[in-house]
Each structure stands twice: as C-alpha cells, then as structure tokens.
Amino acid sequence: MNTLTWIRSVNGTLGRLAPEHVAGKMRRAFMTPRNLPAREWELPLLARAERITLRFGLSALRWGKGPTVLLMHGWEGRPTQFAHLIDTLVQSGYTAVSLEGPAHGHSPGHQANVVLFARALLEAAAELPPLKAVIGHSMGGASVMLALQWGLRAERAVSIAAPAQLMGVLRSFAHRLGMPARARAAFIRQIERDVGIQVSRLNVSSYQLEIPALIAHAEDDSLVPSSEARAIHDAWFDSRLMLLPEGGHQRVLSDPRLIEGVMALLARHDVPARQSA
Fold first, then answer.
1. Rounded CA gap, 250 and 60, in Å?
2. Distance (Å, rounded) from C-alpha 203 to C-alpha 168?
3. Of 250, 262, 259, 222, nearest to 39 (Cα)?
4. Read out DSSP for 112-170?
5. Whose CA is closest to 43, among 74, 69, 78?
6. Which are the contacts of 140, defined by CB distance < 8 A and separation ≥ 6?
7. Measured between alpha carbons, how far is 135 from 85 in angstroms, rounded to an integer?
8. Is the model's pLDDT at 275 over the cut of 70?
C-alpha cells in the first residue's frame, strides 16, 4: 500500500467519524508549503540576484535597471523558476523583482494561501516604483488577479498556468485525499475561516479585470487544466489567450513562445482585446 492509498483509506474511515479532525489535518497540509531547493539551471540567475527585504520582512530578489516588472511564483515555487523570462526582461532594459511568497524562501510565515500571496503583492507594490507589469504563475497567477481586485496598480498583467477559481482546487485536493462529504465540507469551512473570505468569491468570473493581459497555459498541464485559462480569458475583456501544446505546469515558464508573448505585451505590440493564439 503506497502512502496516498493509506491516507485515502484513513481519511475515508476517520472522516466519517471525526470530520472536523480530518479536515483540520488536511487543511494544515494544504496550507503548509515545503521549501524546495533551486534546480541547477536556476543557480546562475540566483548568483546574480540582489536580495531585498520589504516591509513586514517580505523577501524578494531583484535584477536589472529600468521599468519594474513584479513576479510571483506558485505553490512551493521560487523566484528563479522565472529564470529564462527574467534574463530576457533584464536584457530588454527592465527591472525584475521576483517575490518569495509568505512561508516561502526567506519570507516569514509558516502557512500560505492565495489571499496571503495577494496581500504580499500589494505590500511589495507599495514600496516599489510604478509597475510596468505584474506576472504570476499558478497560485501566483491567481493571487495577481485577486490583488488587482484589491487595488494593485500595473500597466499589464500576465497569468501563467493559473486556476480560475479556488473551489475547484479545494474539491480536487479533497477528492484526491479521499475525504468523505462531511469532512470535505468541514475542510472548506476551515479554509474560509483561515483566509477570511468565502471561497466562492475567489472566482475570476466575478472579478473586474480591465488592464491588458496575457493568459498562458500548456494544454498538457496535469495539475491545472487548460480550461481554467479559457475561463480567465472569457472573464478578462482585454486579454490574449495563449494555449501551448506542451510544457506541463512548470516547463511552460521556459517556453520561448511564452517569453515572446510577454515581451510583446510589455512593448504594447499587437495585443488586441479578445485575441486567441
């Protein structure tokens, strides 16, 4: 019996007897990230970074000089996962500031979620020059969209491999770990208590998204389905949808077509509303 099968078995039994207890354990697992080391290909960029500390201890890495582009990684991610994009930004005359989200890297905290990531973006933007663009991957992309609702100001935005709504993410997690119905309901209630907002409100369909944007996703992403990108594009009037045939959830960050699309957006090249690619 592998670990996941064992967890599902325990949750299936105990979740019927003590749903709040199982929900609490799974909530802590869902919101407690591991700090994973940088891959070898990320190390050259890491060596060239300037580490900065923003208010409340939020940590970030900075490269280059010029208009500022703010980047936010995803769950258990790192600033240097944007290495290929950051290199291109710097070579093109931009400053890249890549945050370490709460409970990630050198930033404080023990737990993380999309709301904390969105607040981190707002805190960072308050200390940085006006943003040319804000870019987020996965949960970082979801946090970018939420931060824009809460007043984050940027000329452009990029969402990469992001979910369109949190409820589906929670249901998928609960299903994968074998939580029965009462435990699933308790799990969602506890998440809402911790983040301080109803999960149903964390849905791009109810957002007001107006700045020009690029919505990028790989069609072979096994963690976040590409249908989420289509939903984001449908809700975001002035957006370009870029669906790449492959790249998975992580490798897409290094795809030259994605990088070209980001640079075109920043240069205000041909990015008409409702374009698909």
1. 20
2. 10
3. 250
4. --HHHHHHHHHHHHHHSSPEEEEEEETHHHHHHHHHHHTT--EEEEEEES--SBHHHHH
5. 78
6. 71, 72, 73, 74, 77, 101, 117, 162
7. 10
8. no
Q: How far apart are CA 226 and CA 242, in angstroms?
A: 10
Q: Is the dihedral of CA 48, 51, 121, 167 positive or negative?
A: positive
Q: Is residue 70 included in any domain, yes or no?
A: yes
Considering the domain boundaries, does residue 15 fall inside one? no
Q: Does 143 reside within a domain? A: yes
In tens, the pLDDT along 205-247 reads 999 998 999 999 999 999 999 999 999 999 998 999 999 999 9
Structure tokens of 187? 């799990």
Report if residue 62 sits inside a domain.
yes
Write out the residue range of the structural domain in which residue 69 sits.
32-165+202-276
Asked if 218 and 192 touch (Cβ cutoff 8 Å), the reply is no
Q: How far apart are CA 165 and CA 224, in angstroms?
A: 11
Strands 131-137 and 68-72 come out as parallel
* Other beta carbons within 10 Å of 15: 27
- Domain count across the chain: 1
Q: Is the pLDDT of residue 199 over 50?
A: yes
* Residue carrying structure tokens 């970018």: 144
The amino acid sitting at 277 is: A
Name the token pair of 178. Answer: 């074998």
Distance from C-alpha of 261 to C-alpha of 244, rounded to nearest angstrom: 11
Tens digit of pLDDT for each residue in 123-178?
Answer: 999 999 999 999 999 999 999 999 999 999 999 999 999 999 999 899 988 988 89
Q: Is 158 left (phi over 0), alpha (psi -120 to 50) or beta?
A: beta
Of 233, 228, 243, 244, the closest CA to residue 274 belongs to 233
